[in-house]
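Key idea: predict the complex, not the pieces.
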Amino acid sequence: MSGDGLRPDLPGSVCPAPIHDRKRIVLGHGSGGKLTSELVQNIFLSVFHNDVLDRLDDQAVFEIGSVRLAFTTDSFVVTPLFFPGGDIGKLAIHGTVNDLAMSGARPLYISAAFILEEGLELEELQRVVSSMRAASDGAGVQLVTGDTKVVERGKGDKLFITTTGIGVIERPLQISADQARPGDKIILSGTIGDHGMAIMSTREGLEFEGEIRSDTAPLNGLVNAMLKASSEVHVMRDPTRGGLATTLNEIASRSKIGITVEQQRIPVHEAVQGACEILGIDPLYVANEGKLVAFVASADAERVLDSMRNQIVGVEARIIGQAVAEHPGKVLMKTDIGGTRILDTMFGEQLPRIC
Amino acid sequence: MSGDGLRPDLPGSVCPAPIHDRKRIVLGHGSGGKLTSELVQNIFLSVFHNDVLDRLDDQAVFEIGSVRLAFTTDSFVVTPLFFPGGDIGKLAIHGTVNDLAMSGARPLYISAAFILEEGLELEELQRVVSSMRAASDGAGVQLVTGDTKVVERGKGDKLFITTTGIGVIERPLQISADQARPGDKIILSGTIGDHGMAIMSTREGLEFEGEIRSDTAPLNGLVNAMLKASSEVHVMRDPTRGGLATTLNEIASRSKIGITVEQQRIPVHEAVQGACEILGIDPLYVANEGKLVAFVASADAERVLDSMRNQIVGVEARIIGQAVAEHPGKVLMKTDIGGTRILDTMFGEQLPRIC
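Result:
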């Protein structure tokens, strides 16, 4: 993998962070990196804070009566609507299914709210809707309620979709970004960077030798296999916006542990690698839509790994590093050339509207 | 009330429906009227159909384990963001709370997904978020999870919010638009047209003698009082987009009953009435955001009415008509001048981006 297209002090961006007056929204606020985190903390959490929200996981977990539920929402604003390996509809279903699965929940029901721009071709909408149906069937969830709004031409961008999901947590688990412990092995389910680079190469009209396809996929089957294999899965996250590096930083910070990973163990498709090098982008900061990273008790790691490799979306799963007691909150990577690099959270916007 | 600004064959619009090639989205697809219904039927239901979705209520109802839940989603694209009586944030919380309450559910948890346009002032966002917190507290719900996306300048319109809610149905009720029965009394909780005309007068910079304020309000307390008073509440709906006339048509059609209402029993604030007359709009087709219409067994109607009048949002509640066995699917209104008029569903767009 590359990893050297970026200065270590400025991850996710090859030029200085955009200067803004901090009084207005900039694209970087949607990156999933530091600016997003600032926005969430200063504007949303400071006002809304409560026990459930403050956990800062990608899903809320609560009990109603005797039932333990997970609940998650995401807006999708990806452009273009269709790209190699998927489309906005498939992404919306998989994204919500995966956020539920990352808590150990079995995803059950989905809602979808559509914001349509005047002038959108009905045929395009039909293709997206059919794709959502297929993705729902594939993931074993039902779309049970929805909404449609229309905005004037120039006040939207063809189609935005917000999906929200409910799942049930049937095992007595406490999987959360703050549950990693020193000694945990870090498992990555497959290659990184595929989704983001599929969008980028479509958007820029770039041609690469091997076609780059989004990895969008439902991960609930994979998670189910992992949880059958071990009750010592402490953290699961799908590294979407901000990529693997940002996700690892969140976990290090929330669990107050250090993380060490080995660059050579992190798989990147050759075409993705090539595209990243040309564009000066580090795949560690590129969004994935069908991958997960898990922190598992060392004794169970091989068993979990075996269970993953029996699943189509987990055949390339591998251990990429571990949680350590040293350097809490920091992620260190042993590079291919033998050095050690600090992996920081992405600052601003690398790839706008990637999901 | 006016009611004569419109030709009866073309409700909700004073000029012919816009000619479109039926291959593209037009503003009317977001009206809540016939075009919305066509879109939902042809594009969404034909693909997604399943037992829960096909009920076509404003919320899905299902069981998980021993718990019966309601689940609903809505995108809010109202412009302007702030208007007399409310703002997009308040509207988003109340809208979702009310859709849950209309099934007899006790609203519990809300998610919020924000699509921000580059350039939005953080101060505006802060005001909206604070308003959402106050509205959540007022309605007794918790905002527990969320998402933020940013789109480039000119690809959105400041701020869109999608709220999704979960509520629990604790009483053995089956409240749905298909449950009205001949003989049921129709109760309306208060004046109509306030929300839509508050938006319109702000947007157009119109000045009316009495200030027109949105009626946005949470209705879960009102519903709770009604359901304590009677187990024979058959249908509840909040007449939002498309107004009271469209809501009554949906119920007539779904329950296969006829409806008769009396114009003189339907209250309209004087300033709203005046604004409607100037703009050639019929308040029967104007959106409300803090009103409900209920179909209640005749024997229980007065008891339900009494329970409503003890609530701030129900002091003006009254019986406006009844369900009949004749003319199934049709809504007839006795007009102030003694005639009878068919109230049809709104066809296209009367007031775009009203919620």
